[in-house]
Specification:
Keywords: Disulfide bond, Immunoglobulin domain, Repeat, Signal. This is Neuroglian-like. The protein is 8% helix and 41% strand. It is mainly beta. Strands 2, 5, 6, 9, 10 and 11 form a six-stranded mixed sheet that branches. A hairpin with a 4-residue loop joins strand 47 and strand 48. Helix 1 runs parallel beside helix 3. The two termini are 24 Å apart. The relative contact order is 0.10. Bound molecules: 2-acetamido-2-deoxy-beta-D-glucopyranose (3 copies).
Amino acid sequence: MLQLKSLLLLNSFFFTNHCITDVLLSPPDITNPTEAVTLYKGELDFVVKCEATGIPKPTFQWKRNNQDIPPSSYITYDANTGDLTFKGFSEREEGEYRCYASNVLEQTTAVSVSQPVTIKKYRFLRPDSNLATEPVSIKQYDYVKLFCKKDKLEVVAESINYNWYSKSNDMLSLDDGRLYIDQNGDLHINYAKTTDASDPFGSKCGLSGRSSANIVFGDAYNLYVTPVTQIPGQAPVLKWFSANVVAEMSHSARLECVFSGYDPMQPLPTITWTLDDGSIISTNQKYNVSSNGRSLIIYKLLEQDERNYYCKAKNNFGESNPHQVFLNVTSKPIFYENKAPRDVTVSQNKDVTIPCEARSASGETPPSPALWYVNGRQTGQHTNRNKIDVKANSLTIKSIKKPDDIMCVVCIVSNSVGETMGEACVNVILPIDLTQPVNANQEIALGDFIELTVLAKTDISQQLNYKWTHFRNKNDLVGEEPKFTFYDPVTKMAYINTFGMSESEFESVGGDYVVNISHLYDYRIERIHVTLQDKPAPDDMSGQSNLVPRILYFLTTILTLFFSL
Ligand SMILES: *[C@@H]1O[C@H](CO)[C@@H](O)[C@H](O)[C@H]1NC(C)=O
Ligand SMILES: *[C@@H]1O[C@H](CO)[C@@H](O)[C@H](O)[C@H]1NC(C)=O
Ligand SMILES: *[C@@H]1O[C@H](CO)[C@@H](O)[C@H](O)[C@H]1NC(C)=O
């Protein structure tokens, strides 16, 4: 009778379990773009994609410079696909674009915001095509620097190649390094030759981007070189170096030193680069000393690369003093480890704290306090303070509920270099609840058995795992896997059957049986204390006769479970 009752009870729990209307939900999660990018667009018509996952399927909106995009024939976006389409793209549409992916839940809408996509018109233009020409007179063997006269040019590109050209637009040969073009495009002639002044030289700097077909020219020079009768010999003298080089972490930096000094035996001086401790820098994975030593490229910048570098030059006439070149390694705010907002999945009723703690590169002004956005809207007067607690370095959502508190939170921190954005989309799932009360204290006699089954339910998105541990006594800290007579991983049915056990085996059955019911994001511990009945059951056939109906009971229960599932 008792068995039948518990059977029905168990069944009814399964029945209610099936009736709970739990829905699968997840906040929008933008999978593209995931990093801040700048696009230089040469074409007129193109599409920028925004992709997001989420349940239900998100819809999309794009904003430009944080403003809604007014309808026009130049920019449109598709709320269903996320495609942002440009037609006849020009400077007019340049700006910082962000995609907003929205998931409509019951009463609320969760909104995820993408990293910025900055779009610029790729261009190499010289609006006025009349080149001015400036005369420059020098002596043979002298050093001269010609500036790349870029003022009249309009150039917007991810990278610019500088070359120098003759009057008839032929690219000048750098003559084995006698000529050197620095990172600003300026031309250094280490020692002039009379042939540099070919009738007239008319030399000019030319800028090009992805394709050398599209070159724009700066204003030109006419170079006049006066021949000398005596070949000079001079020790190296620093003529120019790259001052104030500021480069971002993980990027590369180029430091440069240009020395004059003509030696007939060795026309170009030997340049060496050293560190503070005097150690010589040579080309390897980290450094590249090139262009006859005039250029030192440092790859994958780290904060400790911010330091002094020294260049010096030598020939048979003498050696220059070491010249100090400082490299400033800087960065947008950098999140401290584990202090960036991250997507989280949390069981209902818990509090969730989203961190946002960042620093600047070492020695630089700390970032501004974080600006917080909840579902795409900046926090402020309207923010419900009972639900959301905003601090400088964190935001806490209190007693989170499904589905209303499924949301995305953005923080933005900025410094003099730029801004860094982090986003945490918070998914709320139903907690792990027991489907029937647990009988936490049970007694057992030798030859008898007891049921330990603990059944729980949780969010529809999660699969529960049951892990049992048996602690024999209070001092037992480690516990062991319990030796159940029967445990079914499918139905989660668990019980102890002591039939046929020796008395000493039976002695070890008592203690705490602990089950850890867990899924990816949460767990729940249930404890059942089993005490042994003082007097063991008499060693006769009664134990056996008892067993048969009990086994039958379990078989029927399992069958019922299978039918109800
Ligand atoms: C060093 O830099 C020069 C100029 O940028 C480049 O051509 C060369 O391949 C680089 N060498 C190495 C070893 O990286
Ligand atoms: C490096 O550059 C940053 C950004 O321009 C500036 O704030 C900082 O003061 C510079 N550091 C040094 C040591 O010059
Ligand atoms: C329960 O199991 C989960 C998942 O394996 C684990 O993270 C958690 O620490 C366990 N809890 C205890 C108290 O053992």
